[in-house]
Specification:
Distance between the termini: 13 Å
Shape: globular
Largest sheet: none
Number of strands: 0
Helix content: over 70%
Radius of gyration: 18 Å
Order of helices and strands: HHHHHHHHHHHH
Length: 288
């Protein structure tokens, strides 16, 4: 089941990124993050109360809390790195972070993928890099942008490793995701408050009316992101982390294909080639 759970994760993360990207064209990114996560907290809180998941509370929830703190911090570093550019360097490095940390941890803990799986990992990682749209023009990279990108990449991979350890039961997973999102809201709220204090707007130009109009999309982004974390936990606990992490990190391919299908954005040849390689890599991993 690991390939199925992991590929579902990449699908959900890719669609959540696509929806979040569309929303940030109309309202501040921090507002999108905070509102979508608040909606996710409300949904998860209802599930936790109705299922009695509080009974699963234990020391493992510290992994969920840590993931909830690291995640927003990594995302803020990533957004800042994208602003400094070039995006063609920042995006692939950020995507690779979700692979490097969990795979490295899995290897350190004794996982030894077979030859076919090793080939699949190499092909899939190459596909993720190319599908992310790396620039080929050799634009200079500021030291600050590179540092922020590496911090963000490490943060993304750390979140994947932490959420895999946050629970080993279904009810515990509901509680762990609730704790993670609650911490996301606290960190995101503090970041938004600091941003407003510096003079940045907290609301879109249309104010609360724009947010109410975007509620269905915000709900989708928040719940898709939560569900992706849940399916990744299931993937990492049902099979090799090395396989789960690579397949789950194919989400840039999903985002690119969604933009192509729904917005008619044209894929560059290098991106289309990356999508194809990622598909081949996922088949090799699943068959291995």
């Amino acid at each position: 089941m690991t390939p199925l759970y992991a590929l579902t994760t990449s699908l959900l993360w890719g669609l959540a990124d696509f929806g979040g990207g569309l929303l940030t064209r109309r309202m501040p990114a921090l507002t999108v993050v905070l509102v979508s996560q608040l909606l996710a907290v409300a949904a998860l809180g209802t599930i936790v109360v109705s299922t009695g998941a509080w009974s699963e509370a234990g020391p493992q929830l510290w992994f969920a809390a840590a993931a909830g703190v690291v995640g927003p911090a990594a995302m803020l570093c990533f957004y800042r790195a994208l602003a400094l550019g070039p995006m063609g360097v920042v995006a692939p490095l950020g995507a690779l972070g979700g692979v490097a940390v969990p795979v490295g941890l899995g290897l350190a803990l004794g996982e030894r993928p077979g030859l076919l799986q090793l080939a699949g990992i190499a092909v899939a990682v190459a596909g993720v890099v190319l599908a992310s749209g790396p620039g080929m023009g050799g634009a200079p990279v500021q030291r600050q942008a590179l540092s922020l990108t590496l911090i963000a990449a490490f943060g993304f991979g750390t979140v994947m490793a932490l959420i895999a350890e946050a629970s080993h039961t279904l009810l515990g997973l509901f509680l762990a995701l609730f704790v993670q999102r609650l911490c996301n809201v606290l960190v995101g709220g503090a970041a938004l408050y600091a941003s407003v204090r510096r003079g940045s707007p907290a609301l879109p130009e249309g104010g609360w009316q724009d947010i109410r109009a975007a509620l269905p999309a915000l709900v989708f982004v928040g719940l898709a992101d939560v569900a992706a974390n849940g399916t990744y936990n299931l993937a990492a606990n049902s099979g090799p982390v090395t396989v789960a992490a690579v397949l789950a990190s194919l989400y840039p391919v999903v985002t690119a294909l969604a933009a192509r299908g729904l917005l008619s954005e044209r894929l560059r040849t290098i991106q289309a080639s990356g999508a194809g390689l990622a598909l081949v890599g996922s088949v090799l991993l699943a068959s291995g």
